[in-house]
Amino acid sequence: MTTKTTATKRTPTRFGNRQQLQQILAFAGLVVIFGFFSFASPYFLDWANVKGILLATAVTGIMALGATFVIATGGIDLSVGTGMTLCSVMTGVFLANLGLPLVVGVLGGLAVGALIGLLNGLNVSYLRLPPFIATLAMMMVAQGLSLVISGTKPIYFSDVAGFDELAGGELIPGLPNAVLIFFAAAAIAGVVLSKTLTGRYALSIGSNEEATAISGVDVRRWKVVIYVVAGLFTGLAGVVMASRLNSAQPGLGLGYELEAIAAVVIGGTSLRGGKATILGTVIGALIMATLTNGLRIMSIPQEWQKVAVGIVIVLAVYADILRRGKEA
Amino acid sequence: MNVKTTNTRRRFAAAAAATTSVVMMLALAACGEGDGGGEPGGAGGEKPYVALVSKGFQHQFWQAVKQGADDAAAELDVEVTFEGPETETEVEKQLTMLQTALDKNPDAIGYAALDSEASIPMMTDAESRGIPVIAFDSGVESEVPVTTVSTDNLAASAEAAKHMAELVGSGKIAIIGHDQTSQTGQQRVEGFTQYIEENAPEIEIVDTQYAAGDQLKSADAAKAILQAHPDLKGIYGTNEGSAIGVVKAVQETGKSGKLTVIGFDSGKAQTDAIRDGLMAGAITQDPIKMGYETVKAAVAAINGEEVEPVIDSGFYWYDKTNIDDPEIAAVLYE
């Protein structure tokens, strides 16, 4: 990290302006993509399709919310994908196998997410493993445990009354609960990131870890807290995923972490840490889902869909770098 | 780095963290101990040893193959191990598994190739060591395997197309595929498309999208196709995950009953959908027979007996009317 950027970050007014600019740019990107597909296909701009896009955003979006906190500290969380799977499997164990009440099962799923985060945090903070390695290891452990615990078979919630309504029901008619949960989670994440110590310390650690420590913050302890917060979102994603499929699929999840990270990065959060917004992440996740949906509606083969998403990531991050260059 | 922290304190904290991590992981692992089982025993012992390298192990289908293999192993008194990569795209990882299996010097090898050509050097290696190879599920571009035990995927998907044509009559349909790079994945689409082109000119396949057999992604893909073609009359999903995704999409768009959905393989979600009428029917392979025949052929090869060059492990069409017939119920898995 250059001293220039650190200096910029300490200027409060510029900080605020840049955050706004970055969100406006990401939002503009979303509008452009949306506009393009609306012209390209007569079937794109339709509430049913928009609903489909929102629903497709929900699970990856919730994971991306958690990942934003970790990335804000300058870390990375590779365990969100298979961690989510482990959380859905454990929710299945609690609800379908042990027959616990719905609320307990859901909270249990979230608790498993928090536990995953706790282990990540302890490994990063106290064992001083690089976040990439700590969460890579957790990614593998979670995947393995999902398979072991489920006996490699999906766990079905067919006998758990009301579980599929969690994500599939519509409290607001026309809008699936999964989308509602995603927005609510985003609102909470937004508050936590900008208004609480957890969020401020996350950004501060990401900007300059040593300075944060010198100013008297127990960096190691707060990192653990931040990873636990991220884990809670992983748990929520797992519950939503399980509810939407009405089953816990132990084989899914690998690769979802990269989509979540891509969403975070497109949203303007810097992988170097210190700079993150929840709104950006939400927009990033929407961009990913919109792009895939639009290309599918136009019958573009899957191979090319991947190429397109890759190019968008490059463009998004490059735009961010250009802007930062100008400000310095 | 904070210099003031003493080394001992730091070391203590690290040790505490390490202990906590390990304890928690063990605790997590322990709660799953229940039905995890199935540890593959090593080679060793007097029994002939057959190493099976499959395309996967976490998918229900492969578990059924394993069950058939275990049945045959018990019946023919041989030792069988079963392993496979996590996803059906990990060609390289599977080759490593095959290499390790060869290095254990088994009496025979069963191999379900993810890539029909990548393993050719190892096939030659097996031949030079005198280890007979039985290909299962899909073939290998090599003369080495004594036989190939597989579902005739072209015929099976043509059967799916036949039922689609009967049920839909005319109009637009689409396909959600699971893998455009494997032979099985390609044939599942090819057999279907060919049948429609040759026998049902009234039907148009408007789109074929691939979603890696992932339920959520298949659902999203099917919804996009439904959006682009509101007058779509049927969708065919080429494996369990694809088919369940299609059902999900039909449910979520509120088109239940207006669309003919045809699937492949089984699994509880799919059989439930067929019972509930969300899905018209599906093709099931006979994974149990596939595993059984693979081990049986391996034992025959070990004993120097003649083996047919191709062993068809069969397939069935099943729908609401015959789903509980004993011969069908036996090959459907939960």
Please describe what this structure looks like.
The complex is a heterodimer of chains A (328) and B (334). Chain A is an all-alpha fold and 328 residues long. Chain A has one domain (18-327): ABC transporter involved in vitamin B12 uptake, BtuC. Helices cover 77% and strands 1% of the residues of chain A. Chain A is built from 14 helices and 2 strands, in the order H-H-H-H-H-H-E-H-H-H-H-H-E-H-H-H. In chain A, strands 1-2 form a two-stranded antiparallel sheet. In chain A, helix 3 crosses helix 9, helix 3 (47-72) packs across helix 12 and helix 4 packs parallel to helix 6. Residues 1-15 of chain A have low confidence and may be disordered. Chain B has 334 residues and is an alpha/beta fold. Chain B has 2 domains: 49-151 and 287-314, Rossmann fold (3-Layer(aba) Sandwich); 153-285, Rossmann fold, CATH 3.40.50.2300. Chain B is 47% helix and 18% strand. The radius of gyration of chain B is 23 Å and the shape is globular. Chain B starts with 6 loop residues before the first helix and ends in a 5-residue tail after the last helix. Residues 1-5 and 29-44 of chain B have low confidence and may be disordered. Chain A: Keywords: Cell membrane, Membrane, Transmembrane, Transmembrane helix. Chain A: GO terms for molecular function: transmembrane transporter activity. Chain A: The chain crosses the membrane at residues 21-40, 52-71, 78-96, 102-122, 129-151, 171-193, 224-242, 254-271, 278-298, 304-322. Chain A: InterPro entries: ABC_transp_permease (IPR001851).
